[in-house]
Amino acid sequence: MHTLRAPRAASLAIVAAMSVTAIAACGTNSSTTSSTSSGSAAATSGSGSASASASESASSAGAGGGKIALLLPESKTTRYETFDRPLFEAAVKAACADCEILYSNADQDAAKQQQQAEAALTQGAKVLVLDAVDGKSAQTIVANAKGQGVKVIAYDRFVAGSDYYVSFDNKKVGELQGTGLVDALKAAGKTSGDIVMINGSPTDANAADFKAGAHSVLDKSGFTIKAEYDTPDWSPDKAQTWMESQLSAVKSGLVGVYAANDGTAGGAIAALKGGGVDPLPPVTGQDAELAAIQRVISGDQALTIYKAIKPEAEDAAKNAVALAGGGAVTSSTDKDGVPSTLLEPVVVTKDNIMDTIVADGFYTVTDICTGEFAAACTAAGIK
What is its main location (predicted)? Predict the structure, then answer.
């Protein structure tokens, strides 16, 4: 176990006359001390969620409260507003009733996130919980915070120089995706053919890990990687446009699609359907978005990767409260010298939706098995 002791917070220069206009210029930025009702905030229990004793320890460390900034990267991926934000806010409130959360969403704009971080520092944040739009440019946010005695937790996406990092084993995510795709192809009787890879954003450090993990499997699989694309901003639209542009060259030999997350998977599947590809080849994904779970059930998507958000959000909250109170973070490993906690991802296919997504309360059967998916749910034993 690694511990990091926070020094006494340096006195912060408070700007006495900060105008409403200046704050608004930083984009979405709200202050709250309670969990929102956005989405299913009580869901995503996940194995390995923060224990009661850990919460009590964080509460003790965080006695006296303080301001904690939560800086999320975007809202196109449904998890952030539906799960991460409300779960983090609820965990902070449970551990530290006097803590105040300064919330911002950068809408996939690195410059906006920089402004939001600066606003949080000006408002007196003791800790920044940062899910970076751009891991490299976010190092400036870390440096600025440290210059003012403020701690930074890298949440979900790694940022060098942070005081703590909590996420999943991202190379393993890629390995699981690659292995799942190969297994699906072999189950369909395929031993050779062309694969296209639709990777994540080139500015996201996690995307590089997903890509490396997938390549470690696919490069020795016997299948040919015919074309590959790094998707700017994780944009489903850009993934779809690129897939459409490749169809004339790859359609005849295409047997599978590696898509780094569910958004890019949705874009790829739309392009394949629009291009008359029938039957659809196996397509991977990640994040267990509701639309992706429904595509898995209907057969349009082979698999997704489930990352239980509740334990991740609770771990970030526990350690943020500890740092805000001058305490220590608790970690189980490190990444590039940063104390870290890396949680375990899980492959989800049609066969284990009930044992994972539904069992953890991430989604209910009612959420999943809406009208057009009811028959497929029944056939898959999801009820």
Answer: other
- Tens of pLDDT along 268-304? 999 999 999 999 999 999 999 999 999 999 999 999 9
Nearest to 276 by CA among 254, 308, 260: 254
CA dihedral 167, 171, 177, 178 (to 10 degrees): 180
Q: What angle do CA 356, 360, 363 make, to 5 degrees?
A: 90
Q: Which of the four pLDDT bands, split at 50, 70 and 90, describes residue 65?
A: confident
Tell me the C-alpha to C-alpha distance, in Å, between residue 152 and each of 131, 133, 143, 325: 10, 15, 9, 14
Q: What is the pTM of this model?
A: 0.80
Q: 165: which strand partners?
A: 154, 340
Distance from C-alpha of 194 to C-alpha of 143, rounded to nearest angstrom:
44
The percent helix, strand, coil of the chain (3-state, each to 5) is 45, 20, 35
Burial 82-120 (b: 16+ CB within 10 A, else e): bbbbbbbbbbbbbbbeebbbbbbbbbbbbebbbbbbebb
Look-up of token digits 């009930």: 354
Contact 132, 154 (CB under 8 A): yes
Structural domains of the chain, with CATH = 2-162+309-343 (3.40.50.2300), 170-307 (3.40.50.2300)
Which residue in the block uniquely carries the two structure tokens 């509701």? 290
pLDDT band at 77 (very low <50, low <70, confident <90, very high): confident
Interacting residues of 139 by C-beta distance below 8 A, sequence separation 6+: 159, 160, 161
- At 15 the pLDDT is 34
Buried b / exposed e along 249-262 (16+ C-beta atoms within 10 A):
ebeeebbbbbbbbb
pLDDT of residue 241 exceeding 50: yes
